[in-house]
What we know:
Blueprint: E1 3-8, E2 17-21, E3 25-32, H1 36-39, E4 48-54, E5 78-81, E6 86-93, H2 97-101, E7 109-115, H3 116-122
Antiparallel strand pairs: 1-2, 2-3, 3-4, 3-7, 4-6, 5-6, 6-7
Amino acid sequence: MKLRFLGKNSTVGDCPTLYATDRDTYLVQGWRIFANDLLMQLEIPEGETAVEVPTELFEHLAKDGLPTGEVRRVEDPIMILTPGGTFVVQGREVTDPEALAQMEIPDYETVVEVSRTAITALLEEPRGADLQRRAQPAL
């Protein structure tokens, strides 16, 4: 898998990062989730995991030709908008050695892969009340 760096939102010790891949997907590198109250709100299928990232990370999507990085919906693959202003993003956990070798991943972070289609859909205006799915603010 070949990666193209889109951007990161760094503070000292924190490096959530966004990449585009040659597979029409995005890799979202973010913080592992250890908070039990947050984990209990998630239904994560086998082979998938979730990461927490700043909402501003998606502003880097504009570097991939998307008109905006403003997320307008909270639905798959974004599971929750936390009270701290972060998103919990779910996707296939990245285990590809070639991809992982292209990234710097601290022990407290991991990477999920999500389809470009799913991410792009989050940037569109909501189309109705039926989109107010199970994502609720975290406790």
